[in-house]
Amino acid sequence: MVKYISNKGGGQGVDFETAILDGYAIDGGLYVPTHLPEISMDQLRRWKNLSYTDLAFQILSLFIDRSVMSEAELKSLISEAYASFEQKDIIPLYKLKSREDAYIMELFYGPTISFKDIGMAFLVNLVNFFLNRKDKRLSIIVATTGDTGPAAAHFIAGKSNMDAWVLYPKGMITEEQERQMTTLQHANIHPVGVSNCPDGGDDLDAVISRLYANKVFKEKLQLSSVNSLNWGRIMMQTVHYFFGYFRVVDAVGEEVNIAVPSGGFGNVCAGSLARIMGLPIKTMIVANNDNACLHRIFSEGFLSKVAIFETLSSAIDILIPINFWRYLYFTCGKDTEKIKTWIDTFESEGLVRFDEKTFDLYSNGFLSHSSTDEDTLKLIKEIYESEDYLLDPHGAVALAAADYLKDRLGKNKLICLATAHPAKFPAIIRKALGIHDLPQKGTHPGIERAKKLCQKTFTCDFEHLETALIHAMESNLDLNVKNSH
To answer: How far apart are CA 292 and CA 369, in angstroms?
Structure first.
């Protein structure tokens, strides 16, 4: 049976179910499997023509033992998770006309039209499955910079054994993203708009970490999370790398390059682990915006805490790429003591410089680039005018990075990840195209519907967030207990 440990080395190994339901490890670290499965070329060839759901079953079966879940139960969870997606293929790919052998992987055909649906659809079903089996209830708490929150809220809505507390930095996400959370009328969904967050979503993550460290509160509320700190999200997101690879290569074994709009490193982490498992990815392109936290890591070898910029690609306005610590576990000899030291140094000093050997290990097979808002706007306009295709700002960041690095990438096929539907960013699309009325490609029925619905939300100033959340969450728990009697 695969065991899961903290990447910081604290506590004992746990089983898969415990890792999923806990979210954070007991020492505040991230759960990692003690080893990753190795996938042979023969296996890859057998998988090449599988549907997305059948491929997901094969890959997830490498992580989920039959003693945890039967074959029939896993197939049922996967099927249910993706039944509401708009496209039969789940993840279609668009071949660009303006660039040779370049594809856009469209990860936005789930209910909240962002790539977060792909991991969240399965993970929430998985958590629900375990909770039903244990007759247990959880308080799910997540911070969002735009897309995680709507996806978490959508899939948790109406679940009888979960409450979702979704924190977002007020004014730093689009109104469209905010309404995807605040127009849900389910009693178990609690959006919290937080004002005056100097570092945006990173500030909210810090508060959540302190709530987890409050052992009495964590136990009373049964805290957990379904954002990318949860191993289940990373595990599930490895699947779309395999799926995209199979859809573009002529023969298994051919290497591809993949460009990923990056902030918290969750999506890149999943792709990196897919490569370690055996997927022939030549270069992972880490595409940053002006915040450039990951670009500094991969080009200069250090992680620093600096002032955050509000950019047009707001979902990746992140300075602390939490899943980078998870990735380091697999590339630096599984040295949990070193990882803990690096994390502690960063948290105390706001800066950690990696030694040359560590840098060489983690940066092998990676290139990075930091794009400006001007680059983003220009590329959205160029692609729309040249081939009538509309990129969202985050997909544009990925393609801009690939364009900038093209001379270093070679002739391999390129996959750029488009992580959200452009309808989530109407003001940016109008600005990029220089128009007032959005083209049809820039609209979506779900977004239009949410404009006409009532909103409900908690609001709070960041200065009082921790104590205010404790009060609100405990009050809600007391009300649930009262109503259950």
So the answer is: 8
Tell whether pTM > 0.90.
yes
Could you say which DSSP state residue 413 is in? E
Look at residues 200, 189, 137 and name the one whose alpha carbon lies nearest to residue 166. Answer: 189
| Residue 199 C-beta-side C-alpha neighbours within 13 Å | 13
pLDDT tens digits for range 233-289: 999 999 999 999 999 999 999 999 999 999 999 999 999 999 999 999 999 999 999
Amino acid at site 277: M
Residue 59 falls inside a structural domain: no
DSSP code at position 38: P
Inter-axis angle of helices 231-248 and 116-134, to 10 degrees? Answer: 140
In angstroms, the CA 274 to CA 60 distance is 12
- CA proximity to 285, closest of 362, 360, 368: 368
Residue environment code for 273-290, b if the CB has 16+ CB neighbours within 10 A, otherwise e: bbbbbbbbbebbbbbbbb
CA distance 457 to 181: 9
Say which of 8, 116, 159, 170 is annotated catalytic: 116
- Domain of 388, CATH number, reads 3.40.50.1100
Alpha carbon distance 395, 413 (integer Å)? 17
Q: Please give the full DSSP string across 286-327, using - where no structure is assigned.
A: EEE-TT-HHHHHHHHSEEE--PPPP-SSGGG--S--HHHHHH
The residue range of the domain holding 325 is 93-113+231-447
* Structural contact between residues 456 and 191, judged by C-beta atoms closer than 8 angstroms: yes
Q: Which residues of 389-421 are buried (b: 16+ CB within 10 A; e: fewer)?
A: bbbbbbbbbbbbbbbbbeeebeebbbbbbbbbb
* Token pair of 13 as six digits: 């190994």
d(CA 361, CA 339): 14
Residue 116 annotated as catalytic: yes
Tally of structural domains, the chain: 1
